[in-house]
Design goal:
The chain is of the alpha/beta class and 323 residues long. It has 2 domains: 122 residues, ATPase, nucleotide binding domain (Nucleotidyltransferase, domain 5), CATH 3.30.420; 182 residues, Hexokinase, domain 1 (3-Layer(aba) Sandwich), CATH 3.40.367. Helix content is 35%, strand content 23%. It contains 10 helices and 15 strands. Strands 1, 2, 3, 4, 5 and 9 form a 6-stranded mixed sheet that branches. It has a 6-stranded mixed sheet with strand order 10-15-14-11-12-13, sandwiched between helices. Strands 6-7-8 form a 3-stranded antiparallel sheet. A hairpin with a 3-residue loop joins β1 and β2. α6 crosses α7. The two termini are 16 Å apart.
């Protein structure tokens, strides 16, 4: 389905900027053209305007009716400050690089929220099934990738409202003596043990170092060892990561009451998807004492579509133009 009243020949340029890579694509009539998706390594790029100029130039400099950028960081007054990347992104810079008259900059979790209505069943892996009689209500997107964040998604008379947040910098929940030792270990980096300091790609590395007596490995190698089950420290790390993710997700569920479901997104969430069921995510999620039964009201899914944020960008800017 295209965005309401958007001309079928309208071209949009979209970008999803993570802490490591930037994905860029075109959309025609509000739908992402998957054959136009390109990936750029942030470390080797001069910044977003340079990426957009290079990308559009390689495609023959198409005329763009709109541009929408999703960024892994806070957005205020049309200006994005990347949390895990030293880039500053403004609507004016994007407009100049693309020639688009209508420009929007969203937090990446906001873009994921705008994508939910476009997701197919094949792109979802259900971790906790919906209750027998689901309720209507808000939905919640939780991003676990280079960083961590969450965003509630509300249907309103004026369309979807996806609230911005910086949930990754909330305090890491501590339940056991081991958790307290972990907090003391990870707070050495910033003086504070936040959720993102454990539940992220770099957080996974810190968690492994904690369980492996100071041994440092890259996140990809840790995931490889988890899959091969050839490293006891990696196996313990996996269980602990899943448990903490379940606890944080349950806290966020009580904050936002997402009766419409919880959606885990991001590269790290997808990497852990095969382990969430047998490593105790549901048990940690429901471990709320007298509220344990109430936690059964919330379904949890992993979004396995790597390009969902681009779809959300297309939906958002298409509706802006058509309004």
């Amino acid at each position: 389905m295209t965005s309401a009243a958007l001309p079928s020949d309208a071209t949009l340029v979209l970008a999803d900027i993570g802490g490591t890579n930037t994905r860029v694509a075109l959309a025609h009539g509000g739908r992402v053209a998957h054959d136009t998706i390109r990936r750029y390594a942030n470390a080797s790029s001069a910044g977003l305007p340079a990426i957009l100029i290079d990308y559009l130039g390689a495609l023959g400099a198409p005329s763009c009716a709109g541009a929408c950028i999703a960024v892994a960081g806070p957005v205020q007054n049309g200006v994005a400050e990347m949390t895990n990347l030293s880039w500053r992104i403004t609507r004016a810079d994007v407009a100049e690089a693309t020639g688009a008259h209508t420009v929007a900059i969203l937090n990446d979790l906001q873009a994921q929220g705008h994508a939910l209505d476009r997701l197919s069943g094949e792109s979802l892996r259900t971790i906790i099934a919906p209750p027998p009689t689901p309720r209507d209500g808000a939905r919640l997107v939780i991003g676990v990738g280079t960083g961590f964040n969450a965003a509630p998604v509300h249907r309103t008379e004026g369309g979807l409202f996806v609230a911005a947040a910086e949930s990754g910098h909330a305090t890491l929940p501590l339940r056991t003596e081991e958790d307290l030792r972990l907090a003391r270990h990870v707070e050495k980096a910033h003086g504070f043990a936040g959720v993102e300091d454990v539940l992220s790609g770099r957080g996974l590395e810190r968690l492994y170092s904690f369980h492996a007596a100071g041994t440092d490995l890259a996140a990809a190698e840790i995931m490889d060892r988890i899959g091969k089950r050839n490293d006891p420290a990696a196996s313990v790390t996996c269980r602990h990561f899943v448990t903490l993710l379940g606890r944080v997700a349950s806290d966020l569920a009580l904050d936002h009451l997402p009766f419409g479901g919880i959606y885990l997104v991001g590269g790290v969430a997808r990497a852990f998807a095969p382990y969430l069921v047998d490593q105790g995510f549901a048990e940690a999620f429901r471990d709320k004492g007298r509220f344990s039964d109430f936690m059964g009201e919330f379904a949890v899914h992993v979004v396995e579509d790597d390009y969902a944020a681009l779809e959300g960008c297309a939906d958002h800017i298409g509706r802006r133009i058509a309004a």
